[in-house]
Amino acid sequence: MFTFRRIALLVIALAVLGCLGAGGLYAFNRVTYANQIAETTVPAPTADQIKRGHYLALAGDCVACHTAPGGAPYAGGLQLNTGFGIVAASNITPDRDTGIGGWTTKQFILAMHRGIGDHGKRLYPAMPYTAYAKVSDADLTDIKAYLDTLPPVNHAVIANQMPFPFNIRLMMIGWNMLFFDFGGAEYKADPTQTAEWNRGAYLVQGLEHCSTCHTTKNFLGADEAGKFLHGTDLDGWWAPDLTSNTRIGLGSWSEDDIVTFLKTGANDRMVAAGPMAEAVTNSTQHLTVPDLHAMAVYLKSIPASDDTGLTPVPPTDPQMVAGRAIYGDNCAACHVLNATGVPGMAPAFVLSPSVQAQNPENMIRTILAGGHVAVTETNPTGAAMPAFDWKLSDAQIAAVTTYLRNSWGNAAGPVTADQVAAKRQQIGARERN
Amino acid sequence: MAMKRPKADAVIIGLGWAGSLMANELTLAGLNVVAIERGGWRDTSGDFPTSMDTDELRYATRRELLQPLSVETMSFRDNPSQSARPLRDFNTYQFGWGAGGAGSHWNGMTWRFLPNDFQLYSNTVKKYGANKILPGMTVQDWGVTYDNLEPFYDKFERLAGTSGKAGNIQGVIQPGGNPFEGARARDYPLPPLERTQAAMLFDAGAKELGWHSFPVPAGNTSGAYTNPLGVHMAPCTYCGYCEFFGCGNWSKSSPNACILPALMNRPSFTLITESEVMKVNLTPDKKLATGVTYVDKSGREWEQPADIVVISAYQMDNVRLMLLSGIGKPYDRASLTGVVGRNYANQTIAGASVFFKDEHLNPFIGAGALAQAVDDFNSDNFDHANVDFIGGSNMLIHSTNGRPIGLGNAVPPGTPRWGSAWKKAYQESYQTANSIYCMGSSTPHQDVFLDLDPTYTDRFGRPLLRVTYDWNENDKRMAHFIADRSVEMGHAMKASLVVRSEPTAKPYSPMDNLSSHTTGGAVMGDDPTTSAINRYLQSWDVPNTFVCGASAFANNGGYNPTGTVGALTLWAAEAIKTKYLKSPGPLVAL
């Protein structure tokens, strides 16, 4: 994905900036900031604080990255494929040797706000400190108070598994200078907006760190300017547009649609699957309805991304004709012939933002490998889409995906068999029988 | 030396409907529950994917989801003078295997027994005199009434997502429902399924005869549904592949679809699969259970200690586990004493095949419980003063299993069994044939019972269960009567050919696959000399052991048993929660 020339340029740029930063400006900035945080004389946390901290830790979805598959919660070890190499999430249980048991609240806030870890070690932005920088000191203090109540787990994690040159942590100083707005980091309420809107913005931009997945990254992995929540590719999944775009974003969803989706993992039109299912199961379902509603109010206020009108592929197109037949034979039993779906189980396809997404990869990979609907307290069902990789050819999947993207009021680019073949290879799906 | 697991509040043997419902209730009550299931884990979406062809040979003919004979069989004889032989084909018997048990591969007819079924003895004596009951019959009341169970039938229907039409809401007869049913608090959670052409012909026939036709209550969803546990179900697609199949479409009431998604998420619940319980362990004085011993799939022996033991395997296995564990006195035919194995019953079957001319019944449109029925001749819904039997039968026409192999024999009598003449007849019959199925009550008799086989043993060296069963005179008379009624129905439906069927005219054979609905053997009641468990399904002898399932039925009604299994289990669970946990000990004083 990166040419040698680009990598070379990148290394030089970051090294120069890193040296500059380490030697001067940035060190000053860091020292100044560190001194602003109250010293470690934090009073013993109250039960209420710990409870709040638990809630906020759920909102931050810390457990998602800081738990290895089958491992102890918060004990770290999950390997994150950043596109630059592997970063393993650290152990954040209060174990003194391998976790953050020896950390002061101040150190914790420094890591969350500035990406500065133990002994000044630079964190990679896979840890979304650019988002957590928005979170108030009070909230972070409570999160630390909660984490301190967890059972300490002795589990050493080798966090930095990046290849050279990305394994040079000091480069992150340069990265931060380029992409991290220290001055504007902490969330500042917009006085022209309601308290609810501000609460929503605080959660969406901060703890929930939605932009980590839903905003396009530049070639150095930082949020691309002017593309906030416009949707992007995420390690083979498409994290959809969350702006008010009515065709591919949340423009056609009501605030209640958003709340229901985040609370239960599904609404009447859509289900959460893939990485979003995990986000709902681990995080958003635990948020209160007022907090979710605040997020919905804020999300609905984000201006629509640009969208040029598309003409649907005509029903007479050979792909459409084949796709219609494949849909009737393989999909209609659950998604219903008129594509209205089953609430909480099988998504509807009528005027569907996810079906029309700029990139059809979610549909292709779900048809190939299947998928599970988020499991939540309110919807424990766990309905699943079966895999069709063994059953449908690349051309058949391309046809049915094209048909879905251009029926029932949808209009989106056709899908080719080559796209399906590439996805089949990328996710290790089976060949057709 | 058995390895020992940490003690649980309750251990549940078998995770079918009864085990799942009990585990759900007990975990909701705050108990730490361990369930041990002989078969494997079965997931609705993962194990029954809708993308797979419904393979009739694999699942219906070879019964891949059912308990295999390689695990265990049982021995059978018609009467006590014969010597029993082990079955080499389960045929009529269809035992669950795996999480969900038989509840994952059943058809879904979700009946409530009639009020009379629970008080068959006292009602008969009161209305017709004690002589109405033929000698040798061991008819007795259940110790529980329909009114006791009504809230629990209702609860089960809500959990299961039953589709149907009420016939009696709080005493008010509802048009289109079953007017003979016991009063219900409210209607079914879902409206009835769509009707097929066969159902409409049946309905027209019933109207002509003055009988009261209604849609059979179905564990097949007529629409999208969310149950009280928050589990979603999707509308049935009428594929007709219910019996012997799991439903990956989330449209069939089953533990897998309705209970397990919520249950499996609870940290207080543990499921151990592919592990077989050897016995319930008792204290030396045999007055209390201490837990169970089981063997895991690697052959290692484990002990699972628990304060409460719930036996909720298949009806036959419940009885066998009690006998193997020494819970309750075994029934002894010679002295007519003992209770475990007593009052075994089956289902009394009769009916008629119907063939039409120029009809398109489209049997490929079906569902496991898509049927139209009349109850005019069930239980005591009609006056028995002028007939020489008690009990009766439901009568229905069923639109399901429109499967190419299974319907191969549904050709007019005299058709060759193979070759071009058979093919021609089958082509015609596939669209024009169906049958009127009468699912009759089965009354208990002293010559019908379950005990441990004196000769044959299982893979662990434990005695097999021995079944001694034949139709009794009362039930044969009932079947003769109801077969006549089904012929009347066939003619009223304007069938061009009606073929009467009365299987009870010859000795019972488990190789005829008439009905899998076996009941009794560990029956509930008010008298410990005639019942193994009290009205709360609690062992009279070992009060921290509860035995849930159709094994509790004192007699079998003219319906399939699942609705009543569900209601009884929820009734027992309520008693455990509200009475037993507060004061562990016998819930019925002697």
TrEMBL record, chain A:
Gene3D superfamilies: Cytochrome c-like domain (1.10.760.10). Heme c 3 binds at residues 331, 334-335. Binds 3 heme c groups covalently per subunit. One of its GO terms (cellular component) is plasma membrane. Keywords: Cell membrane, Electron transport, Heme, Iron, Membrane, Metal-binding, Repeat, Respiratory chain, Signal, Transport. Heme c 2 binds at residues 210, 213-214. The lineage of its organism: Bacteria, Pseudomonadati, Pseudomonadota, Alphaproteobacteria, Acetobacterales. Residues 48-151, 195-303, 318-408 form the Cytochrome c domain. One of its GO terms (molecular function) is electron transfer activity. Heme c 1 binds at residues 62, 65-66. It is found in: Cell membrane. The keyword Cytoplasm does not apply. The keyword Iron applies. Its cofactor is heme c. This is C-type cytochrome. It comes from Acidisoma cellulosilyticum.
TrEMBL record, chain B:
It holds the Pfam family GMC_oxred_C. InterPro entries: FAD/NAD-bd_sf, GMC_OxRdtase_N, GMC_OxRtase_C. Residues 449-568 form the Glucose-methanol-choline oxidoreductase C-terminal domain. It comes from the Bacteria. GO terms for molecular function: flavin adenine dinucleotide binding; oxidoreductase activity, acting on CH-OH group of donors. Keywords: FAD, Flavoprotein, Oxidoreductase. Belongs to the GMC oxidoreductase family. This is GMC family oxidoreductase. It comes from Acidisoma cellulosilyticum.
